[in-house]
Amino acid sequence: MKHYSILFVLVTVSLLACEKTTNNTVRIDAQKIVVNDRPYLIKGICYHPVPKGSNERSFVSIDQDLSLMIEAGINTIRVYAPIDDVAILDKIHAAGIKLIVGFGYNQGGVFDIASGSLLDYVTKYKTHPAILFWELGNEYNYHPEWFDGDINNWYTALEKTAQLINALDANHPVSTAHGEIPTQEVLNENPSIDVWGVNVYRWDLPASLIEEWKSRSTKPLYFSEAGADSYMTIEKDGYAAGENQKAQADATETILNQLFEDPEIVSGVTLFSFTDGWWKAGNPNQQDVGGWAPNSSGVPYDGAPNEEYWGIVDIERNKKEAFYVLQKKYKQLN
Into how many domains does the chain fold? Predict the structure, then answer.
């Protein structure tokens, strides 16, 4: 009996070691993301949890949030800044969820692109099984003022940084989240980007971008942001003004149905976003109405992105109607 126990332990340890290794293997095969030799479809959510009354991200509600994500069928979280806490990463992995880790350009030298310190983070966590891929920037193409007025400075930094990460970590792709579809010139100048994310707000028709992508690139594409808020600044298209979960839910259903129609081209979506953000438009102790003038943008259905109303759950984690729409769609894709 003693010998069988030892053998059992050795086999168990060996299997766990193999599991740990394969959980860290993410690669690109043609236009698909492949995890552990199986095609991976991103059924995701953007996640930047800031508690009521605060302006800073906090994971105080991580257990509740992960439980809700599991219930919704979410398999991928996209964060805008690295999580330097192995306990949080372990919880994400234990929930069966993968992580897209975003890096900012200038974050005071803390895991950022400008200083190159993001390479320290990649080195530290590249073997963690929660990691899906590394992502550089978030629609920086809209902000040439951050790069001495010349957006080409950003694209130069983007390509250089992607090369450095690829040299350091052969097991995870590198992405960027581009505002709308990149031009052919931009794609040509950034060959080291393995996966292109696009933040797209074309009313409830973001999939109109897919045909454009087919003519420009053979690399994987995913929608790093798409969605709608739950506030109507004006009455429009039969939706009443004011807080309106029905408008958000209808737009979310239309958007998700489109984006998963062509899995050969689209590798999925991280819907914006998981929870309402009271920190965005005013007093973080209350939910403020704010955003652009009505009919000024591509946000359904009023053209006004009221920044504090984008969650599929509210700040107290009560489910909105859009939660159930997302859940239904993501569960269908299992």
Answer: 1
Q: Is 145 exposed, middle or buried (0-12, 13-18, 19+ CB in 10 A)?
A: exposed
What mean pLDDT comes out for the span 20-24?
50
Q: What CATH number did the domain enclosing 207 receive?
A: 3.20.20.80
Q: What is the 3-state secondary structure (H, E, C) of 51-115?
A: CCCCCCCCCCCHHHHHHHHHHHCCCEEEECCCCCCHHHHHHHHHCCCEEEEEECCCCCCCCCCCC
**Inter-CA distances, 179 with 21, 201, 224, 225, 297, Å:** 34, 9, 9, 9, 14
- At residue 334, the pLDDT reads 78
Residue indicated by tokens 């030892």:
6
The answer to whether position 120 is within a domain reads yes
Alpha-carbon span 330 to 253, nearest angstrom: 11
Q: Which pLDDT score, from 0 to 100, does residue 291 have?
A: 84
Determine, yes or no, domain membership for 32.
no
Host domain of residue 286: 41-332
Write out pLDDT tens, residues 153-197.
999 999 999 999 999 999 999 999 999 999 999 999 999 999 999
By the 8 A CB rule, do 269 and 45 touch? no
Which pLDDT belongs to residue 84?
98
Instruction: Confirm whether 281 is domain-assigned.
Output: yes
- 16 located within any domain: no
Q: Residues of 230-240 as b/e, b for ≥16 C-beta within 10 angstroms? A: bbbbeebeebe
Give yes or no for a contact between 267 and 173, defined as CB atoms under 8 angstroms apart. Answer: no
What pLDDT, on a 0 to 100 scale, did the predictor assign at position 288?
A: 96
Q: What is the mean pLDDT of residues 205-227?
A: 96
